[in-house]
C-alpha cells in the first residue's frame, strides 16, 4: 500500500511539472539575452546582442561590421563641425548630457579631452554606454546613472564645455536647463529640435502638441510648446524624456535665452526641417572673455 501511494505521489508531481513546463512554453515570456548564460566564444557582437534591436548607433572601424543600429553617432558630422568651431576640445573638461550609447563620448576622447562626465538617466541606455566603454576602452569617460538636472543643481563642479545633443526638447523646463548649463560651463555644443509654427502645425505634428503657454525663468520670458510622446513612451526602444510630455522651444527663444544667460558668441549650423521629427539645428555657444557690445549680441540673436 505504501509503495502504491508513493507511486501515485510521484506521478502527480510529474504531471504537475509537465503542466508547469507547458504553461511556461505557451504563456511565459521567452528568456532575453540578459537572463541567459553565454556558451559561445567571446566576441563584440555577442556584447552588442545583449541589447539586440535596441541600438540606435552603428559603429566605426574596426567595429563597422557589427550588427547594431543605423545612425553614425560615433562619426557624427554635426559634432565634428562643433569641435572645429570650438577650436578643438583637447585637454578640456567636459560634461555630456544624455550620452545614449557613448558615440559622442567616443568622439570626444578621440579628439583629446582630459575628461568627460556623462550622465544618462535611461537605465538600458546607461548599460549600453558601459558596454561601449569596455569595448572601445574609453578610459577618459565617466558614465554616471542619474538625472543631469539634479547633478547640475547640486554639484559645484565647473566644466570647460557642455555637450547637450538631443536632450533640450525632452525637458519639462528647457530654459531652466540652459540656465544650469550657463552657470557651470564656459562653452556649449547643442543639437536640438525646436518648434516652428509653419511646420509643427501641419497635420502630422499638430496632434502631438498641446496648447502652448508662457513661462519665465530667471527673468527670461518665453513660450513652451508641450509635446506628447503618446504610445512611443511604452516602447522598449524609447529614448525620450522621463515624463509623458516634454516642452519644445522656438528657435528664437533658444538663441535669445543663450544670450540672456551669458553665451554671447553663437555659431549656428545644420538647419534641418525633418518631416518625421521636426525642425532642428546645431550650434556652438561661448561666453565672452570681455564685455560684448550690444551690436555683437544682436548679431548673435539673429544668427
Description:
The C terminus is likely disordered. This protein has a 7-stranded mixed β-sheet, with helices on both faces. The protein has a 3-stranded antiparallel β-sheet with strand order 6-7-8. A hairpin with a 3-residue loop joins strand 9 and strand 10. The protein is globular, with a radius of gyration of 24 Å. The protein has 2 domains: 29 residues; 225 residues, Vaccinia Virus protein VP39 (Rossmann fold). 34% of the residues lie in helices and 23% in strands. With 303 residues, the chain is α/β, with parallel strands linked by helices. The protein is built from 11 helices and 10 strands.
Structural class: alpha/beta
Helical region count?
11
The total of beta strands comes to 10
* CATH H level, superfamily name of the largest domain: Vaccinia Virus protein VP39
Rg over CA atoms: 24 Å
CATH architecture type of the largest domain = 3-Layer(aba) Sandwich
CATH class group of the largest domain: Alpha Beta
What integer is the average pLDDT?
Answer: 86
What is the helix content?
A: 25-40%
Unreliable stretches (pLDDT < 50, length at least 5) are 290-303
Query: What global shape is seen?
Result: globular
Bin the strand percentage: 15-25%
Order of helices and strands: HHHEHEHEHEHEHHEEEHEEH
Number of domains: 2
User: Could you please say which CATH topology of the largest domain applies here?
Assistant: Rossmann fold
How widely separated are the two ends?
A: 94 Å
Oligomer: single chain
What can be said about the biggest beta sheet? 7 strands, mixed
Amino acid at each position: 500500500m505504501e509503495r502504491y501511494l508513493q507511486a501515485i505521489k510521484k506521478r502527480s508531481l510529474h504531471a504537475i511539472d509537465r503542466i508547469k513546463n507547458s504553461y511556461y512554453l505557451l504563456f511565459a515570456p521567452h528568456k532575453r539575452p540578459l537572463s541567459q548564460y553565454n556558451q559561445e566564444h567571446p566576441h563584440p557582437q555577442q556584447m552588442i546582442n545583449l541589447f539586440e534591436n535596441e541600438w540606435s548607433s552603428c559603429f566605426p572601424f574596426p567595429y563597422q561590421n557589427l550588427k547594431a543600429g543605423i545612425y553614425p553617432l560615433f562619426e557624427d558630422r554635426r559634432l565634428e563641425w562643433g569641435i572645429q568651431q570650438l577650436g578643438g576640445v583637447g585637454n578640456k573638461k567636459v560634461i555630456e548630457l544624455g550620452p545614449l550609447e557613448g558615440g559622442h563620448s567616443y568622439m570626444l576622447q578621440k579628439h583629446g579631452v582630459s575628461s568627460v562626465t556623462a550622465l544618462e538617466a535611461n537605465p538600458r541606455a546607461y548599460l549600453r554606454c558601459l558596454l561601449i566603454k569596455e569595448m572601445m576602452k574609453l578610459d577618459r569617460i565617466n558614465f554616471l546613472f542619474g538625472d543631469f538636472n539634479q547633478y547640475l543643481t547640486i554639484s559645484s563642479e565647473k566644466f570647460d564645455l557642455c555637450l547637450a545633443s538631443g536632450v533640450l526638447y525632452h525637458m519639462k523646463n528647457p530654459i531652466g536647463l540652459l540656465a544650469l548649463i550657463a552657470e557651470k560651463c564656459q562653452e556649449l555644443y547643442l543639437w536640438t529640435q525646436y518648434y516652428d509654427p509653419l511646420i509643427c502645425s501641419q497635420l502630422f505634428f499638430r496632434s502631438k502638441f498641446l496648447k502652448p503657454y508662457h513661462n519665465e525663468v530667471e527673468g527670461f520670458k518665453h513660450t513652451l510648446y508641450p509635446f506628447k510622446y503618446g504610445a512611443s513612451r511604452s516602447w522598449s526602444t524609447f529614448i525620450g524624456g522621463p515624463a509623458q510630455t516634454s516642452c519644445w522651444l522656438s528657435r528664437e527663444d533658444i538663441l535669445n535665452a543663450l544670450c540672456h544667460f551669458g553665451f554671447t558668441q553663437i555659431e549656428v549650423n545644420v538647419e534641418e526641417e525633418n518631416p518625421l521629427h521636426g525642425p532642428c539645428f546645431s550650434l556652438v555657444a561661448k561666453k565672452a572673455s570681455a564685455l560684448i557690445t550690444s551690436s555683437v549680441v544682436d548679431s548673435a540673436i539673429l544668427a
